[in-house]
Each structure stands twice: as structure tokens, then as C-alpha cells.
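Exam revision sheet. Question 4 asks you to relate a sequence to its structure. Input first:
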Amino acid sequence: MSSEEWSEKNVAEKGFTLIELLIVIAILGILAVVGILAFGGIRQKAEDSTNLTELKEVQTAASAYVAVEDAMPANVTAMVTGDYLDSAPRCSYTMGTTPKGITQGTCP
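Answer key, C-alpha cells:
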């Protein structure tokens, strides 16, 4: 079809066919599914990483508390009030007999 013939067609004849539109929609659907499956577990991995980082921070603060106070803190609140932690952690913790013995409880 020459450019002259194309320019003579009306607007309705220049549009896409139904089959072409369905193929494009199917391709977009497949790409959306692949994207959702590829990035589905990212949020959980981020939360797990955040929780592990917070546990290490609490254990480090407990080590500093033991070095200065010569005793294990009774709870996490004691480390916050003693300025060993900037703020209260979002997870709950069970205090052990050593800083490495601190275990993480429930997290929101």
C-alpha cells in the first residue's frame, strides 16, 4: 500500500484490528504476572533483614551496657533509658545471660 493510498483512507480504516489489540493486552498481562512473581517476596525479605539488623543492634547495645554497668540489662527499656539504644525497638526481646543470648520475640 503506497503512502497516497494510506492518506486517502478514513480514520476508522487506520485503526488497529481487534486481534492486534487482544495480542497486546495478552502480552501486557503476561508481563504483569511475571513482574508480580519476580517481586512478590521482596517485602518479606526486607522485613526479615530489618528484624535481623535490629537484633544485632540490641545485642551490640547490651554489650555496651555490660561493658559500662558490669551487669546484663534487665530488659530493653533499661538500655533505652541508659542511652545505649536511641529508641525502643519495634520487636520484643527475651534477655539472656549474655548479649549474644538475647533472642527476638514477636515483630509487628
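Marking note for examiners. Residues 49-104 form one domain.
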